[in-house]
Sequence to fold (550 residues):
Amino acid sequence: MLTELRIKNFALIKELTVSFSSGMSCITGETGAGKSILLGGLSLVLGKRADISLLNDLSKKCIIEAVFQIRNYDLKKFFSENNLDYFDETILRREVLPNGKSRAFINDTPVKISMLENLSINLIDIHSQNEKQLINQESYQFSIVDSFAQNKYILNDYKIFINEYNLIKDELENLKRKRFELNKSFEYKKFIYDELLNANLPENFEDDLEYKYRELSNVEEIKENLRKSISLLENEQIGLINNLIEFRNVIKDLNQSSNKYLKFKERSDFIYYELIDFLEDFNKRIENLDSYPEELLTLENRINEINTLLNKHKLKKVSELIELREELRKEIKKNENIDQYILSVKKKKRDLETKLNNLSREISKKRKAVIPSIESDLKRLTNRMGMKDASFKIELTNSETFLYNGKESITFYFKANKGTDFKLLKKIASGGEISRIMLSIKNIISKFKKLPTIIFDEIDSGVSGKISDSIADIMYELSVTTQVFTITHLPQVASKGDNHFKVFKNTNKSNTNTFIKRLNKKERINEIALMLSGNKITDTAKAHAKQLLN
Fold:
């Protein structure tokens, strides 16, 4: 609740501090005394647009502070999410500088004006005869019914699942788009991948193929040198093998003469057999080289194939082609896996739909159960306030899709007179009717949830004394659980308040200032008597005032 309001250098207010308590507080004063200024100052600290023209002294800044007791409003989460210090007694401050700039603070922490607005929604609710916007919002209409139906916790569960459901829906749509994009290029990528795979790319292309190509390109020179080598080995006259045979025979004769030469025989045998191996290898190589034209052609084709792939993909190394092949393999695998993943996401979506459908049915069932009572209570309360033939009808319409408040929409219908048809509330209700309907709604809701401080700005304007008395009674009933302020010109309403404040102007030679004062019992009697009689307080008016206050 609002416990204190401090205003400095705002409009006709030079400096003002006023304290408030729980219950119903009535604010009265002559037309032009500054009641709207007081409300304007409060609106400014709640985040409304600032205007430099509202400064009383253009050389000084305007400061407005509102102190709230918020321990019963369950706002710790808001403070935590916005990195604000939480205190049961919270101070909202707004400053308007002479240069037109504006600053906002919550518990001395600088904040954006939007944050001030978001917090103030939970603290103060201002209503006037011109206020039609709130009652016409579907979210607010649902809040009325759901408060009555005690749907708070089940709606919390629903909203957790609907948020998850919307994320899953978005994910599914993204996956489908991704799959579409992948499918568009899948066949081409698959072709390239198969081409690279069938190319059987060598890991060491430069070392293997090119080396072999160089060898085959010089095959005649190699064959000639091999023949020379063979000739040197097996020539009858100068061949190494024949000479080595003779050398072995000599060593053999030495060995027969002395055992000391045995090792030489073994070494000569080794050399002999090694040369024989050389000869066999050289002969085989010459045989293999005889088919070189076909092999060279094959090798040339292989090298050309690989070079074609390199040029095609604008790459320089076979290793880069291998990397490309691996990337394509992964993308193809991804394409193959995405359908399976889509199936799993679809299952999650179906599971959430089941949960949401179950919760929606339960929410709707509870709403339908209380709607007749709400219609009846609204009719009863508005009838008390002079709308004797007023009737209400609340309709729920099923939706094919999941909405934020369930799987249905809501419509409030109203008729003011007998013999007429129900029509949309927002289309036919007047400002005065809306004000009384809102008062009725707040009265109903207050039985089920803690409401923010409510300010009624002359909602009783233009009604008779009897009706105003009923309006005052209903406001007083509301004030048992909710802090209520009412700005009024009616003595019947002013007399019902737990507290009575008077707004007045004081004018001297140089300036005019607006003040607000909490009235004691004697002052209150005089104020109500003045409201009854006009400019002059009569004994009859005072007696009537005392009667109203008792």
Notes: Residues 361 and 430 are 35 Å apart (CA to CA). The chain has 17 helices and 15 strands. The first strand starts at residue 2 and ends at 10. The longest helix spans residues 318-384.
